[in-house]
Structure formats: C-alpha cells, structure tokens
Amino acid sequence: MLPPIQFQLLITILRIGPPQVNKFPLQLQNDDVYTACASVILDLVKEAMQYERLQGSDVRCHLCAHNCLIHNGQRGICAVRENRDGTLYSLVYGKVVSVNIDPIEKKPLFHFLPGSTSLSIATVGCNFRCKHCQNYEISQFPRERKFPIPGRDMQPEDIVSAAADNRCASVSYTYTEPTIFFEFAHDCARIASEKGIKNVFVSNGYTGAEATRVIAPYLSANNIDLKGSDKFYREICGARLEPVKNTIRLMKELGVWVEVTTLIIPDLNDSEKDLTGIAEFICSVDSSIPWHVSQFYPTYKLLDKPRTPVEKLRHARDIGYKSGLKYVYEGNVPGAGGEDTSCPGCKEIVIKRFGYRIIENRLRNGKCPKCGGTIEGVWV
Ligand code: SF4
Fold first, then answer.
1. Ligand 1 atom closest to Cα of residue 51
2. Residue 198 belongs to what H/E stretch?
3. What are the domain boundaries of the chain?
C-alpha cells in the first residue's frame, strides 16, 4: 500500500492538466510541490555541463566543490544530477518550483539597483544539507522524498519574458542553490543578458571554479553565504569552508558585484572568533563588500536553538566595522536601525530602509550627497 503522500501524488497526476506558463507570483511549496509533480510525466532531462567521462560508465561532476564520482544509474550528492549510461544529466532543467517578483533587497543585495524588482526562480535540490535551511521543503526534496523531480516545465524564454513583462531589472536564481540548476540558470542568464536584464545568483558559494568562470560573464551580482568555521560547514551543512572562500575571491576577480550573508545562530557560529574570522576574511578580499548579519529563527532540524538576539546582531555589526568593513547590515530585524547605508567617510545616511523597502535614497551618482565620497555598488 502506498504511503499517503505518494497516493496523493498519483491522484494529483491524474487530475492535473498539461503544464502551463505560470501566473506570477507563484510559489510552490509543501503540498504544491507534489502537485507540480505532474510535469514529471514528460521526464525532460538535459545533458549536464561541467562533468567528465571516466572509465567504464562512471562520470565525475565538477559543477561544485563536491566533485562527485557518480556510477551508472546513480545521482550526485545534490540528488538532481544522474548518470545514465555514462552521460550525466540535469534532472531539474526547466522544472521550476518557485517564481516570485521580489524586491532586490530581499536577496539581500543592498548595493545593487536599490528599489528594483527581481524575478526570482528556483528548482528543487541543493548540494548542502544545512540543518537550519529555511527552504528545506524544496532544497531537500530530492533527498527526502522518494518522488520524481517536481516542477512546472518552463523554458528560459518564458522566464526572461516574465521578467520583461513585469519590468524586473534582474532575474535572481535563488531560494535553492543555483549551482545545482546551473544549466537552466545559464541559459536563462544568457538570454536575459541579451535583452538587457541583469542576473543575480544567491548562492552558498560552492560553485566549482570553472563553472564560476562560465557563469560570471552573465552575472551582475552574487550574494554568497559565508556561514561560519570549517567545523560549522562540516557538521551543519555537509560541506567545507575553503571552496566558499575561493568562490568569493574569484567572483570579485571576475568583476561580479558580491555581497556576503551570515545567518548568526546562537552557540553555533556566533563566537567572537567565528565572527571576527568571517569579517577579516571579507575585508581581506575587499573592504567594500557589504556584509549582512542576519537573525536566525528556529526551523527544520535546528528547532532547539533560539532566535538570535538583536544585541548579538549589533555586536556582529560592530565586529564587522572594527575589522575594517565599510558596510555591515543587520538582516531580518526591520526597523531596528541596522538596515541603512551610511557613508563610510562622513557617516551621513545615504539610503534609508525599512525591511525590504527603500524609505529614502539620497545617493547622487553613487556619491554621498554631503561629502561627495564614493559609495561602492551597482547603482544604475
Ligand atoms: S553539482 Fe555538486 S553535488 Fe551535484 S553532482 Fe555535481 S559535484 Fe555532486
């Protein structure tokens, strides 16, 4: 006898019609993800980028720093790339589970086209297993549910048209890790660039070096999580720290605007040593990289940890400034005063925010209106 969820899936597949282009915003989560499973009837897959064929039918995927060795019939750690007779396929190409029009501040990107909107998309899957994932229903779906890959079938042209029709300045590849839907993101980004629409990755930074070089020409901005120490990465995320640092460095070298986010979790990554280590690393790459220190709330497998106290965020912000960073922001605490952009020279507030809303933008061609100092970012 089928478990209830699988039974529900079967009923849904029988009930639903052919996939349609979505109305926006659309977000498929929880039960809706199962509804979206209807599109698996088509079993559309795309040959993967960034892999090599090995002896026999084995392949090695180089898309991210896991560099998975994948035997015939198996999938990589992300569970959305499958070896079929020596050819690696992406199982999530065009299988979109979330489409929303978001303020760019939500990514968060505070120094990139402030006040603009971004068409934000995701497929299921992730190469991390973070115990505090806020989007675990979709990021961990391929690992935790014994279903075919869900998603509404959309082509890159559909995504770019939707962005243009809704006057979005950018397309964001977000909610789940864009590296694992790289082929789709790459095609969308190429077409969006041709139409003058910018592209944004919101990423865990585990992208392989070659893949980073391939996507960078189409990317205008990348918010990268820098989550904590190597111990934190190994124990909480199933990954390692060093590749993330490498991606931050490389994205900067390649001219992509980078902002960094750290979700501060009580007792896990909030020590003086951890926070100073993160801030000093960012500063060593470029002191003008904005650092977002965000409030954690209990979710998924970390239900035993409390919300991050606002005082802790403030302390992290102080550490950032003391380490030499020019721009540090408190995230997920609207109105607490840590969201405004101040001029690093004269401390004048140049952009005032409340949550994701811009209350006032006083920038003049990227300069402080009081002292004329440069505020780094992508402003037009
Ligand atoms: S994207 Fe990363 S996790 Fe997925 S198969 Fe490739 S190397 Fe493995």
1. 6
2. strand 198-203
3. 99-123+154-339
CATH class, domain 99-123+154-339, is alpha beta
Written as six digits, the tokens of 130 are 């973070």
Cα 70 to averaged position of ligand 1 atoms, centre (Å): 9
Give residue 173's identity as a one-letter amino acid code.
Y
Q: Is 78 in the pocket of ligand 1 (CB under 6 A)?
A: yes
Phi and psi (nearest 5°) for 364?
Answer: -120, 100
> What residues form DSSP beta bridges with 328?
291
String of DSSP letters for 327-365? -EEEES-TTSS---EE-TTT--EEEEEETTEEEEE--BT
What stretch of H or E contains 185?
helix 182-194
Q: How far is the C-alpha of 331 from the C-alpha of 297, rounded, in Å?
A: 12
What's the whole-model pTM score?
A: 0.90
Strand 291-295 with 257-264, pairing: parallel
24-39: burial string, b at 16+ Cβ within 10 Å, e else: bebbbeeebbbbbbbb
Q: How far is the CA of 242 from the centre of ligand 1 (A)?
A: 17
- Which helix (H) or strand (E) segment holds residue 60: the answer is strand 59-61
CA distance 221 to 251: 9
Q: What is the pLDDT of residue 11?
A: 29
Q: What are the angstrom distances between the C-alpha of 263 and each of 226, 308, 311, 337?
A: 8, 9, 14, 18
pLDDT in tens, 210-231: 999 999 999 999 999 999 999 9
What pLDDT, on a 0 to 100 scale, did the predictor assign at position 28?
Answer: 44
